[in-house]
Design brief:
It contains two helices and 15 strands. The chain is mostly beta strands and about 240 residues long. The protein has one domain: Sandwich (Jelly Rolls), CATH 2.60.120. It has a seven-stranded mixed β-sheet with strand order 4-7-14-9-10-12-11, covered by helices on one side. Strands 1, 5, 6, 8, 13 and 15 form a six-stranded antiparallel β-sheet that branches. Strands 2-3 form a two-stranded antiparallel ribbon.
């Protein structure tokens, strides 16, 4: 009887915390083998930004760069990004990650400011507060799958885009939109990157890179988001 009462109290406390403090990370399921996990505790200064060690900032030519910085929240360090009529990305090469063995990409994110009127279905409104890309190839010739937090684009919509004179090809998926933003709530996402790559491009790469972007240049507005834990797992 005592054990049952204690269990009820614990569950009640957990429910209260999740309701009153949406900035606290939701619990992830138990994880086993990991092929890679971002380390936001090791910070380097680059271009006046506090970036994760092993990541670099990439500007879009002719566009004001978005600002990325490791910041601390109640649950630990996160990658914060803001764009003001801006666009840029941070990228890391995932050496040794085998998406055949660890195909599951799992991460936490939240959007606190969405670019006004943005819609991934329209090229002249193609802005996202945060987009996560897994790709293979070079800066001029690559194929990627992208998971986006859009504004007006309905959740579940997917499409194809090409950049850089057509050499940079992206298969994108809208996972979140304006209906999920504004409360400061964190969401945990999970995608099988190996399967998504196979469906999009007919193969899955042996060497991959990871890109996190923030864009608001087309809508001439502002955007802000945070990325928490992100990594590749076997299940």
């Amino acid at each position: 009887m005592i054990i049952k009462v204690i269990s009820i109290l614990i569950m009640g406390c957990a429910a209260f915390i999740n309701t009153q403090f949406p900035h606290v990370f939701p619990p992830l399921q138990e994880q086993t083998v990991t092929g890679w996990r971002a380390d936001f505790d090791h910070v380097v200064m680059a271009q006046n930004m506090r970036l994760p060690e092993g990541w670099r900032h990439v500007r879009k030519p002719g566009t004001t760069p978005a600002v990325f910085s490791i910041t601390e929240v109640s649950a630990g360090n996160v990658l914060h990004m803001e764009s003001d009529r801006a666009s840029s990305s941070v990228i890391t090469q995932l050496e040794g990650v085998d998406i055949e063995k660890t195909p599951i990409l799992r991460w936490r994110w939240r959007a606190t400011k969405l670019p006004e009127g943005a819609d991934g279905r329209s090229r002249d409104k193609d802005d996202q507060a945060i987009g996560i890309y897994v790709g293979a190839g070079t800066s001029l010739n690559s194929k990627s799958v992208s998971y986006r937090w859009d504004t007006l684009t309905p959740k579940g919509v997917e499409g194809n885009s090409a950049y850089g004179l057509g050499g940079v090809k992206v298969k994108w998926y809208t996972l979140r939109n304006e209906g999920d933003a504004g409360s400061g709530r964190w969401f945990t996402e999970e995608r099988n990157v190996r399967d998504d790559f196979m469906k999009a491009w007919g193969f899955y790469p042996k060497k991959i890179f990871l890109v996190v972007s923030s864009n608001s240049q087309y809508t001439k507005s502002k955007a802000a988001a945070d990325l928490g834990d992100i990594g590749f797992y076997d299940k």
